[in-house]
């Protein structure tokens, strides 16, 4: 089984750090799970223009294939202007609807205010619902205060919640596919 962690931004590093931390938890505890990080900073995605996903080429085609081939997901985004990033929304627009059908998703968000955690409830969960994906009950929101100046996650409660989310996503996938 393949767990894909997605860092849904092309700027900054805190979101990728948080998603990588969750993938590390899975790697330590679930040897049956293959993990991969899709860091959108490393790809040049075209804007979705309504064509068939199979008609895209280059990095866009590669990313669509990577997302489509995964079995479960940990999706991270920073919150900008009280919303998910445009690059993550574009990724959701590019991926075929059936690619995420009945797959488990967990969400990690980062931001500079404590109110932005609501974006998970008000934007990410409805998008998952559109894809008919299963959503882990837990999610993790990390504020800038949860990182030290070297961008290491230092809040023990947040680290515990990341571990819980990582286990929850794998557990849900295993039970739903049994």
Automatic annotation (TrEMBL):
Q: Which UniProt keywords apply?
A: Flavoprotein, FMN, Oxidoreductase
NADPH-dependent FMN reductase-like domain residues are 1-144
Gene3D superfamilies noted in UniProt: 3.40.50.360
Please verify whether the record's keywords include Oxidoreductase. yes
Show the GO MF annotations. Answer: oxidoreductase activity
**Top-rank taxon:** Bacteria
Q: How is this protein named in the record?
A: NADH-dependent FMN reductase
Organism field? Paenibacillus contaminans
């Amino acid at each position: 089984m393949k767990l894909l962690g997605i860092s849904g931004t092309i700027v900054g590093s805190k979101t990728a750090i948080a998603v990588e931390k969750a993938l590390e938890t899975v790697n330590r505890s679930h040897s049956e799970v293959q993990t991969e990080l899709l860091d959108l900073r490393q790809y040049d995605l075209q804007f979705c223009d309504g064509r068939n996903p199979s008609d895209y080429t280059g990095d866009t085609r590669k990313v669509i294939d990577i997302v489509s081939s995964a079995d479960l997901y940990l999706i991270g985004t920073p919150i900008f202007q009280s919303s998910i990033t445009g690059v993550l929304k574009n990724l959701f627009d590019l991926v075929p609807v059936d690619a995420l059908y009945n797959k488990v998703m967990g969400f990690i968000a980062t931001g500079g205010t404590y109110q932005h955690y609501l974006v998970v409830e008000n934007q990410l969960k409805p998008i998952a619902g559109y894809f008919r994906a299963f959503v882990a009950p837990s999610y993790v929101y990390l504020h800038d205060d949860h990182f030290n100046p070297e961008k290491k996650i230092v809040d023990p409660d947040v680290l515990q919640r990341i571990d819980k989310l990582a286990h929850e996503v794998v557990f849900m996938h295993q039970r739903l596919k049994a």
